Amino acid sequence: MGTDPATGASALAGRSPTTATAVGVLLAAVGFSITARVTADNSLLTHVATGRLILESGSVPTTDPYSSHFSGETWTVQSWLASVVYAATVDVGGFAWLRVLHGWIGFGLVAGFWQVTAAARSLATRMALTVGLLVVADAFWSPRPLLFGLAGLLAVLLALEGRLRPIWLVGTMWLWVNTHGSFPLAAILWGATVAGVMIDLLLSSGRTRIAEPDPVLERLAAAVRAVPSELWRIGVAVTVGTLAGAISPLGPRLLWFPFATVLRRESMERVVEWQAPTFSSPSELLYLLLIGGIVVAARRNRFGWRYLLPAVVFLAVGFLAVRNIAPGAIVALGLLTHGLEPDQSSPAHVQAKRSARASGPARVAVFGGLALVLVLSSMAASGPGLDLDRYPVAAVDYLEERGLVARDDVSLVHREAVGNYLTYRYGTEASVYMDDRFDFYPVERTTDHLDLVYGGRYDEVLSKVDASVVLWQADGLLADWLRRSDSWSMAFEDEEWIVACRRTTSTFTSCRD
Question: Collapsing DSSP states into helix, strand and coil, what is residue 433?
Fold first, then answer.
């Protein structure tokens, strides 16, 4: 790690903390509070259920254990290690302890990003960039394995910034491969950085003519040789760590999983998180403003292609899908530090020097920030951890009392989030119609499900699976259709959910009882 006093690393070396360190700790505490919130995330429920299954069986499932129609089909549990960590944490301390775990991951992410921003040197610039990250984090840092993926991406960025030894990336990449499918972002970040360095080298040598038959190829070879050896070591570490990720219960299939998901993009194009952002929220608007920040930075000599190319690549990734905004913001905001560094004679640079000095108030602020995080940890550990208000708990209770849920012989149709809840509640007995594993289900099933959600071939889709019971949101288009249909009868209804039963099925009497 670097020991520049402006980075705050001096505190780790035993010296007095600086103002910059104090600010970094306080901002990291905000990161803790963002990721330690009470969760209602439906994906997390399936991760916990799968982790319990792994711990109980001693092996990672390779076929689906939850679906009512596709049970036994090949399923790659990409985040198996994260699922194990989640299940073990919940079994020991409940979902409240999971809040604490996520909180500390958020703390570490912001603290690591603060190290990246040290290149800006101006304390005000560092704070602005980190606050921007926190705005994005508040909207897009979901309590799921995504956080492990963001930690891996940040580790690669720190190594590229010279603040983490490349050897650490070997273990980091193994963990990343086995916890989240976003690990190809490491190679993309490294490749864009190396390409940017080579472009800078080619441009700097462009005025020199080389007396060779093909000067372009000669200059290209010279640029490759001139790439700093540290970058090549980072590339080797990323490659070795990624390949080592195949040393796991699932083997090489983990390495292919992200690419298989991209090939199945057509099945997810109507899923919100896979769609392009609409820029209707403050966090998305902030992300849009990064275009202006990069344009301003690109006008400065210090912000060459070494930083411009990866910043643009990752910014563009966020424009392709909402789910990519979180990693895109980390890289784009982090690299902007090089384009926003003030001139050494500017007041901001003087401010940075002053903030690097150790001080008594800084020491108090550091300890106060750490104490705040400990208090927040205690509050999270002793408070509620899981909010099930968005799930049809009462409606599922109604079905359970009548033996109409978690049964292979009852065709129950429901939304994807409900499927995750049923998986959490019933485990391998859940027999779900759909959940949010869009990478697993056939395109036809995903299309049918989205027709039920957004309006479409209701009767055709329900008949296709011989649906006898439908559990749906009370204000949904499908619920309105079921109320009007002569073939269906309302058996349960509250303010948020309905249960409808098909009149011509053998389960109709028990459903209405």
Answer: coil
Encode pLDDT of 59-100 as tens digits: 999 999 999 999 899 999 999 999 999 999 999 999 999 999
Helices (H), 79-183: 80-116, 123-140, 146-160, 168-177
For residue 332 the two structure tokens come to 């784009």
**How many Cβ atoms are within 10 Å of 317's Cβ, its own excluded?**
18
**Global pTM value:** 0.89
Quick one: angle between helices 443-454 and 477-484, nearest 10? 70
pLDDT in tens, 140-184: 998 999 999 999 999 999 999 999 999 999 999 999 999 999 999
- Return the closest-CA partner of residue 384 out of 52, 107, 93: 93
Q: What DSSP string runs through 16-31?
A: PPBHHHHHHHHHHHHH
Question: Domain boundaries in the chain?
Answer: 5-35+76-377, 393-512
Cβ-proximal residues to 327 (8 Å cutoff; 6+ apart), any chain: 149, 150, 153, 182, 185, 314, 317, 318
Residues with Cβ within 8 Å of 420's Cβ and at least 6 positions away in sequence, in order, are 42, 43, 45, 46, 435, 436
Cβ–Cβ under 8 Å, residues 317 and 327: yes
Angle at 38 between CA 35 and CA 40, to 5 degrees: 105
Q: Which CATH number fits domain 393-512: 3.30.70, 3.40.190, 3.40.720, 3.40.1130?
A: 3.40.190
DSSP state letters, 36-87: TSPB--HHHHHHHHHHHHHHHHSS--SB-SSBSSSTTSB---TTHHHHHHHH
How far is 412 from 460, CA to CA, in rounded Å?
Answer: 15
How far apart are the C-alpha atoms of 28 and 32, rounded to whole Å? 6
Largest CA distance in the chain: 91
H or E segment to which residue 207 belongs: none
Output the six-digit token pair for 187. 């190679």
